[in-house]
Write a structure and sequence with these properties.
The chain has 107 residues and is an alpha+beta fold. Helices cover 41% and strands 24% of the residues. The mean pLDDT is 97.
């Protein structure tokens, strides 16, 4: 059974911000675009295996149904809607930051 994968507006903005940050650091649009594409593609396997991500360390986020996938320095947070057979990509955040606080502020 295949699930749809949908990026929320917030996660799309996260990816844009990451791309702009990488461009500012590298001065290369190719590097920035390639890394954002890599972050987008790391979730493709969730269509077949929606529960394959890890649980966050924060109990509140676990209760809300959040899971995440690491890719490089970034964590892609998602929720699964079983009834809609959809995986919602909720956020893409740098794992070296206080991402729990950032997620909680967005709720």
């Amino acid at each position: 059974m295949s699930y749809q994968i949908k990026f929320t507006a917030t996660s799309e903005q996260d990816l844009r911000d990451i791309g702009f940050h990488l461009f500012d650091e590298s001065k290369s649009p190719d590097i920035a675009l390639a890394y954002v594409a890599r972050l987008r593609s790391c979730v493709k396997h969730l269509a077949a295996f929606p529960d394959s991500g890890s649980n966050p360390h924060d109990r509140f986020l676990i209760r809300l149904g959040y899971k995440f996938i690491p890719e490089g320095d970034y964590l892609t947070f998602y929720k699964v809607a079983e009834s809609a057979q959809t995986v919602y990509i909720m956020a893409v955040l740098n794992g070296k930051t206080d991402y729990v606080r950032t997620l909680k502020k967005r709720l």
